[in-house]
Ig-like domain-containing protein (Acrobeloides nanus), 95 residues
Amino acid sequence: PLHLECKVEPVADNTLQVYWLRNGNPLPHAHRFRTFHDFGYVSLDILSVYAEDSGTFTCVAKNAVGEAQTSTQFISHRKCCVLKEPHHLWEVDSM
């Protein structure tokens, strides 16, 4: 499995929209992709990882004030998985 996470602020902003992209596109609807967003904690779990899952994963957070995003590159190999250059999303301003 693959687990990615980021933190977003303000944690109590009920207008905050958070979503994940792979290579700039929305994730496909599949049972192996699980997303979670609660009180500033955001995560993406891919339950079964395949070579075609390689790419750049981006966490996007949007509210009325603006948008912030962070990305990391994931490379899947037959026997191991490597994450390159992780970045952290810390804040989306509130109104």
Q: What stands out?
A: The first strand starts at residue 2 and ends at 7. The chain has one domain: 2-84. Confidence is low (pLDDT under 50) at residues 90-95.
